[in-house]
């Protein structure tokens, strides 16, 4: 097992070693895993390519490190505890041995249905253990999974299927979320009308709702696995073979497929999990994310299972059937490490601390936060009321592209500071650059957050478009990986993330490209042009504010706004619906025709007085109109 950091001096020591001799540092950690063949070289890299290889020419299968490696000592230990949406329904506990059998059986099922090493498989499923089984079965046979959050629209799903030319879709009939029953299979049916690569669809029965099954293409999960062997020999993968693709939004165009590979991702997701959360054998760990996001990949499925942990998978929402549900689950399973998003904390905080009264919460030892900056008020509420002042709050900064946590306190080791992600993990060499690309050394500086040396789970490419990867992450500052976030390093050398400096907004911890939302709005036939910006939102962190020029003929303003919301929901999904829509006569533009977002961002955030110099605008008069009618 990986040796955990135990003291602050131990952290500093490891950090120093990891910078001095990264190859030695990571090879010692990688030695804790099972490899069919050891690497020829620990790391080989060039950020100009970009071309990064970790554990070069090593051979492994990540699922052998989750399953076979744990069977002897942990076979009967719960791997996954599943808590259903409805507390009255039975929960499920799946031991490592059972998980092994389920994964082997489903691996064989995938193969029987034509999936081969290298094929892409889309997973569009609810939060049930079978979703983790599906991911692991793909990994076991060398197929590349791409999980799509089951709240995305049919068009978003179709775009992803087409981009990666998926051969198979794994889905469910429906999905429970709070008091709602959500259509899932019908969304897949709709998506498949505009795709041509999918040969088979395997459907897990969750809600029992009526669905249409297409003869020859669609099979029920329970029928597909019936009688299939529970023994399977894992495919031997190269360290740099693709493990999965996960689509995420950027500042321009359609979402891109972030690619992670087998060896480096395995080592880093496990290492970061064990250290940040200080997981000890026997602990019960719970991350409330959905597996459709990177947090679910790295810190519900891969990291914890590689560490032989017990990971809870919760199907429902924080407030169903009541706002005490999270705390009830913590007590029920005696959760030791709890990991959630600031938006959930703020939403629960709004119900008041009385909601927490009936619960003991005395098993909790570590509280994690992820996805967006956590404001001081929410940090204190989490620390004082949930953690009763006993539990360190680990504010973990990372991204889909980083594969794992890069900046975070090590629980009970790193002294915390409200709303600070604190210090980089060993192996992570941060740099703060000004807009001209000069590295700002020393403390008390603020600028663009970059990384100057690869860590094992850095993205390798964006699927099917390597140049886009280079342009997006490795071209703003030559020789650096650019995160897109602004950051401050304070007088103690502690890092505080300030939020995105590009046109990406973060709504309830979900990443959205402003251009992507604009494109969706513009699909409405009456829309002439639109501009979308983020604005501060009490619960969501950021809300979506859309300024829209419309042809109003024959429509009331309210109807039109409603139609625009429906359009966005259909094209991207409900999570992208604008919170505010303002119909405007024009958009402030520079003489070269570029929309001045800076002005719109200020207006949307309520700062309508200090707009700076607007005299260079092509149309300064529209600013007054927009300002007067701000929502
Ligand atoms: C963006 C990445 C990391 C998994 C979930 C989101 C923001 C993430 C923090 C944090 C401040 C944070 C950043 C980042 N972000 N964690 N602890 N403090 N900001 O992954 O969807 O790829 O989004 O989320 O802006 O760039 P993602």
From TrEMBL:
UniProt record similarity statement: Belongs to the ATP-dependent AMP-binding enzyme family.
Keywords on record: Acetylation, ATP-binding, Ligase, Nucleotide-binding
Segments forming domain Acetyl-coenzyme A synthetase N-terminal: 13-65
Organism: Fulvivirga sediminis
Name assigned to this protein: Acetate--CoA ligase
Superkingdom, taxonomy of origin: Bacteria
Gene name in the database record: acs
Database matches in InterPro entries: Ac_CoA_lig, ACAS_N, AMP-bd_C, AMP-bd_C_sf, AMP-binding_CS, AMP-dep_synth/lig_dom, ANL_N_sf
Gene Ontology molecular function, alphabetical: acetate-CoA ligase activity; AMP binding; ATP binding
Pfam families in UniProt: ACAS_N, AMP-binding, AMP-binding_C
GO biological process, one term: acetyl-CoA biosynthetic process from acetate
Database matches in PROSITE patterns: AMP_BINDING (PS00455)
Gene3D superfamilies: 3.30.300.30, N-terminal domain of ligase-like
EC number(s) reported in the record: 6.2.1.1
SUPFAM superfamilies given in the database record: Acetyl-CoA synthetase-like
Residues annotated as domain AMP-dependent synthetase/ligase: 75-454
CDD domains associated with the record: ACS
Stretches assigned to the AMP-binding enzyme C-terminal domain: 516-594
């Amino acid at each position: 097992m990986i040796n955990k950091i135990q003291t602050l001096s131990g952290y500093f020591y490891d950090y120093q070693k990891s910078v001095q001799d990264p190859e030695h540092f990571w090879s010692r950690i990688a030695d804790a895993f099972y490899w069919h063949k050891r690497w020829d070289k620990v790391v080989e890299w060039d950020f100009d390519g970009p071309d990064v290889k970790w554990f070069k020419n090593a051979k492994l299968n990540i699922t052998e490190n989750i399953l076979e490696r744990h069977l002897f000592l942990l076979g009967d230990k719960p791997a996954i505890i599943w808590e259903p949406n409805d507390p009255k329904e039975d929960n499920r506990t799946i031991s490592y041995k059972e998980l092994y059998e389920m994964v082997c059986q489903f691996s064989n099922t995938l193969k029987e249905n034509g999936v081969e090493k290298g094929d892409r498989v889309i997973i569009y499923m609810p939060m049930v253990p079978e979703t983790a089984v599906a991911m692991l079965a793909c990994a076991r046979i060398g197929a590349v999974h791409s999980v799509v959050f089951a709240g995305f629209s049919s068009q978003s799903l179709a775009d992803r299927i087409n981009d990666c030319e998926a051969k198979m879709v794994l889905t469910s009939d429906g999905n429970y979320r709070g008091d709602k029953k959500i259509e899932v299979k019908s969304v897949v049916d709709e998506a498949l009308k505009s795709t041509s690569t999918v040969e088979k669809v395997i459907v897990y029965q969750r809600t029992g709702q009526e669905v249409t099954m297409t003869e020859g293409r669609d099979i029920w999960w329970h029928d597909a696995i019936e009688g299939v062997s529970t023994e399977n020999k894992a495919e031997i993968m190269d360290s740099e073979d693709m493990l999965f693709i996960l689509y995420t939004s950027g500042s321009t165009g359609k979402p891109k497929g972030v690619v992670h590979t087998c060896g480096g991702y395995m080592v880093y997701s496990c290492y970061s999990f064990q250290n940040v959360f200080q997981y000890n054998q026997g602990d019960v760990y719970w991350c409330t994310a959905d597996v459709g996001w990177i947090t679910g990949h790295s810190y519900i499925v891969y990291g914890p299972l590689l560490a032989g942990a017990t990971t809870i998978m919760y199907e429902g929402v924080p407030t169903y059937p009541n706002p005490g549900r999270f705390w009830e689950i913590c007590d029920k399973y005696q959760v030791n490490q709890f990991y959630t998003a600031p938006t959930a904390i703020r939403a629960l905080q709004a119900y008041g601390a009385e909601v927490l009264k009936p619960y003991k919460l005395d098993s909790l030892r570590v509280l994690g936060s992820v996805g967006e900056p956590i404001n001081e008020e929410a940090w204190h509420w989490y620390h004082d009321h949930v953690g009763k002042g006993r539990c360190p709050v680990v504010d973990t900064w990372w991204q889909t592209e980083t594969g794992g946590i890069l900046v975070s306190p090590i629980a009970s080791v790193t002294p915390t500071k409200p709303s600070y992600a604190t210090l980089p993990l060993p192996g992570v060499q941060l740099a703060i650059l000004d807009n001209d690309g000069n590295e700002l050394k020393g403390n008390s500086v603020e600028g663009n957050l970059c990384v100057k040396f690869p860590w094992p789970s850095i993205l390798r490419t964006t699927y099917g478009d390597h140049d886009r990867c280079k342009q997006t992450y490795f071209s703003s500052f030559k020789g650096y990986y650019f995160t897109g976030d602004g950051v401050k390093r304070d007088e103690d050398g502690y890092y505080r993330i300030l939020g995105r400096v590009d046109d990406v907004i973060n709504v309830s911890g979900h990443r959205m490209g402003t251009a992507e939302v604009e494109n969706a709005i513009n699909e409405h036939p009456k829309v002439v042009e639109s501009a979308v910006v983020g604005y501060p939102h009490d619960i969501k962190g950021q809300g979506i504010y859309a300024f829209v020029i419309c042809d109003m003929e024959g429509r009331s303003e309210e109807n039109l706004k409603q139609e625009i919301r429906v359009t966005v929901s259909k094209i991207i999904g409900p999570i992208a619906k604008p919170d505010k829509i303002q119909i405007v006569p024009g958009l402030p533009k520079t003489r070269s025709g570029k929309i001045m977002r800076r002005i719109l961002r200020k207006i949307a955030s309520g700062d309508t007085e200090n707009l700076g110099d607007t005299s260079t605008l092509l149309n300064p008069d529209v600013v007054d109109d927009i300002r007067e009618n701000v929502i």
